[in-house]
Amino acid sequence: MDVARDGTLGRAAVGAATAVLVAGGAALGWHVGNLHNGLIAAAFTAVGLFVLRRSPRNPEGRLFVATGVAHAVMYAGRQYGLHPGPLPGASWVGWCGVWPLPLVLVLIGVTVMGFPTGRLPSRAWRPVVGVLGAVGLVLSAVSALWPVEYGRTGLVAAHPLHLPGAAAAEAFYGVARPFGYLLLQLTWVACVVVRMRQARGDEARQLRWFVYAVTVSAAVMLVGLAVWRSPVPGALTAPLIAAAAGAAILKYRLYDIDPVINRSLVFGAMAAAVTAGYAVVVTGVGRLVDGHGTLLSLAATGVVAVAFEPLRRRVQRIADRLVYGRRATPYEALARLSAHLTAPAGGLLDGICTTVADAVGAREVVLWTGPPDALRAVSVWPAASPVPDGARRLADLVAVPVRHDGGFRGALTVTKAPGEPLSAAEQRLVGDLAAQAGLVLELRATAQRLVAAGDAARRRLERDLHDGAQQRLVTVAMELGGVVRSATAAGADDVAAQASAVREQLLEATAELREMARGLHPAVLTQDGIEAATGFLADRSPLPVRLTVSVGRRLPAEAEATAYFVVSEGLTNAAKHSGATVVSVTVSLAAAGLVVEVADDGTGGAAVRPGSGLEGLMDRLAILDARLTVDSGPAGTRLRTVIPCT
Amino acid sequence: MLADDGVLFREGMARILTEAGCTVTGQAGDVASLLAQVRAAPPDVAVIDLRMPPGFAAEGIEAAAAIRASAPGVGLMLLSQYLEVHHALRLITEFDGGVGYLLKDRVSDLTAFAVDLRRVAHGDTVIDPELVSRLVARRRERDPLDDLTDRERAVLALMAQGLSNAAVAADLHLAIKTVEAHVTSIFTKLGLVQHEREHRRVLAVLTFLRA
To answer: How many helices (H) and strands (E) does chain A have?
Structure first.
């Protein structure tokens, strides 16, 4: 690939420039107050460049690089201006490290608000960012013109400009700065909170990685300030935020975050509790009972040891609740399952998997149906995961069997994060959900059997008509033909005419019967498949039909019959109601199943009404886990379904 | 030679065809018996039910293909309760003439049926008029058939049934020259290549109508 075009060269240049600025700045001395700028510069640029290498044009990666580079400039500028023996041009170079600060903070805000996609959660945030940018611009402009920030940075070199009105600028900045920064912080916290509340699945986990890193960093900062009275430990964790954010953007080990947070919470809480307990016993009680230091230490250790396990269990439960907030109690899980089951059909099996996944915080849940020696996956959570294909034996799976009425109906496999086995309570919960799932699978199987039996009965009826009544009628018509012939030969013209008229009527009756038999079940569908059968429908349609059928092989009878009925109903509706001039029928085989689409250019108005053909179609499709979408508007009506079939 | 799994129908057809002056050389209730009898004494025409045991699908066409391979001189007349366009196209594409595809009802008009049998025996192609009219009546987005005159459409329908120019002329009470002029006009308007042989002509017209 072209080196310049894939951005390698650009990334190398940015990386080298940042490295020079940070390394050069670091060589100029050690200044605790400027340390965080160097660390942020190095970490954010490095992570941003790595993200861009893995996923070029990633907007969040670009924001990271911008943040890193801006900090590199500020770091180098300040290091230069902080040098004790003023260096040549120090006032201007140092100035470059000071005045951009408010704008750079806005940039950080946008980077945080854009996480993890690099885009704001919605368009509504754009004016907010505009306001922040304006505030940053004003603050930066004031800082560029007057030395309002210099007191905080401790630069040796003086501000290069000496404009009048310094006192007024100082007064304005003293008020505007805290307000501006407060606004900025509130905004990005609000944005992250909004995003976390809306986020589902992977994005929620990406945000958790980030928030986790920020929280740990803040905790270290607080501990550092409290214990050592130094911001250095906190500043040193800035790269941790960048690294966690980078891993989250690239979705690296995304699913390991939950147990990490869980254990951190338990560890942190227990460490705090032990320290506090020890401190209370030793210092608090020690003040009352003087001179028994060793004894008190022993007593404290004993108290902590006895309280530790029950306390840990309680803390663990709270941590579980916090981390797996979506993880429901058994009652909630069962209630949610019933809600899933009353939802529109089609997602029934997916509903079971989602409920189980929510209930135990699983990483993957698979629902299998069939006999124990040939189980097939019918649904997977998360929906994006590939459905395992091929048959499995129950013995080869670590599965919870799904039973109903004592009979084996299928199995559930639940995968959790490594090192986090199913607890006994969770196993019981999965067992309870499996019992509910058994009923669902049983109902579904019953419905499938009913439809199959109905189809078989119609097929048999059609066969019986074909071989019986139709054949007999044709035979009688033929015999009448013989009568016509002999009557004509014998000169009995009136008898011949009568017989001929009867024969005509008989043939009309035969034609009607033929239509009826075809309506029951088109023999051509069983014999020649969906392509020939839809061809017949198109030939007979009162509207012109654009027919595209590419199936290529025979499919299970119920899938073919259902697809046929969808096309038939769609054509009938289009001809009856829509005022369309043309109907497009597409039947094709995709990975998800048989895709059937009937679209017309009429005036719309199609809806699923009780007792309508469309409703019957939906019921039929639901049994095959397919959903009928009906889009009907002024531009026409479109029926579409995907019938899963193997 | 008659092959149909319905005994009543088969026996009735045998009797009536005999009365109409045909010689029925044999009767078969399944494909194996049909093939054996045709191999032993090849008839002029074999009348075959399209749907026969064991599968009740399109066994008739398979049997016809087997007969054509072993005894190329035998005319093949397939009868069916339903008319399927793809079956018709398959018969015309896979067989080079001497083949017919009719609704079972047609047997009751003995005179016409006897004519059709003779045509098949002579190597012509016979396609059921109902199937052709279904295709001609088919709605198209921009219908090229709109460009044809009523008379030309009538000629087209008869051509698609396998009739020769002379037969079309007789049917419509026209001079052969007139029919020839119509045929040329139809082929020009539809953008089809003319064929001398009726069979190739049927194939071209039906393929066009189906497209």
So the answer is: 23, 9
Averaged confidence pLDDT in chain A: 83
The C-alpha torsion from A350 through A356 and A362 to A363, rounded to 10°, is -10
Query: Rounded mean pLDDT of A627-633?
Result: 85
By percentage, how much of chain A surpasses pLDDT 70? 91
**pLDDT for the residue A635:** 83
DSSP state of A421: P
Residue of A nearest to B103 (CA): A474
Task: Please name the member of A470, A475, A539 whose beta carbon is closest to the beta carbon of B12.
Answer: A475
Reply yes or no on whether the pLDDT at A386 is more than 80. Answer: no
Residues 6 or more apart from A454 whose CB is under 8 A from it? none
Distance, in Å, from the CA atom of A352 to the CA atom of A581, rounded to the nearest integer, reads 44
**β pairing state of A545-550 and A583-590:** parallel
Does the distance separating the beta carbons of A582 and B110 come in below 8 Å? no
CA A231/CA A332 separation, integer angstroms? 45
Task: Tell me how far CA of residue A17 lies from CA of A41, A69, A72, A73, B177, in angstroms.
Answer: 11, 8, 9, 10, 92
Per-residue pLDDT tens digits for A550-588: 888 888 888 899 999 999 999 988 888 768 888 999 999
Q: For residue A491, count CB atoms less than 10 angstroms from its CB and return exposed for 0-12, middle for 13-18, buried for 19 or more.
A: exposed
Q: Does the CB of A577 have a partner CB in chain B at under 8 Å?
A: no
**Predicted confidence band at A3 (pLDDT cuts at 50, 70, 90)?**
very low
- Peptide bond just before A634 cis, omega within 30 deg: no
- Region of residue A154 (left: phi > 0; alpha: psi -120 to 50; beta: else): left
Are A479 and B134 inside 8 Å of each other by CB?
no
Q: What is the DSSP string of A593-616?
A: EEEEEEEE-S-------TTSHHHH
Q: Quick check: A46 and A71 in contact, CB under 8 A?
A: no
Report d(CA A182, CA A18) in Å as an integer: 29
Q: Tens digit of pLDDT for each residue in A77-127?
A: 999 988 887 788 888 888 988 899 999 989 998 998 888 888 888 888 899
Chain B residues whose CB is inside 8 A of the A549 CB are: none
Taking the Cβ of residue A541 and every Cβ of chain B, the question of whether any pair is shorter than 8 Å is answered with yes
CA distance A61 to A117: 9
Contact of B66 with B52, CB cutoff 8 Å:
no
- How far apart are the C-alpha atoms of A323 and A255, rounded to whole Å? 12
Whole-number Å distance between alpha carbons of A611 and A619? 11
B70 CA: distance to closest CA in chain A (Å):
26
A513 in reach of chain B (CB within 8 A): no
Q: Which of B47, B102, B105 to mutate to test the interface with A (most CBs of A within 10 A)?
A: B105
Which of A467, A481, A535 lies nearest to residue B110, judging by beta carbons? A481
A231: Cα within 13 Å, side-chain hemisphere = 10
Our separate counts of H helices and E strands in chain B read 10, 6
Token pair in block for residue A585: 């029928």
- The crossing angle, in degrees rounded to 10, of helices B150-160 and B165-172 is 130
Looking at per-residue pLDDT, the higher value among A291 and B149 belongs to B149
Quick check: A372 and A410 in contact, CB under 8 A? no
CB–CB contact B82 A523 (8 Å): yes
Inter-residue contact B76 to B45 (CB < 8 Å): yes
Nearest-neighbour CA in chain B from A255: distance (Å):
54
| Pick from A487, A503, A478, A502: nearest CA to B14 | A478
Chain B: residue whose CA lies nearest to A508: B105
Structure tokens, A185:
């912080």
Closest residue in B to A584 (Cα–Cα): B141
Q: What is the rounded CA–CA span in Å between residue A624 and residue A556?
A: 11
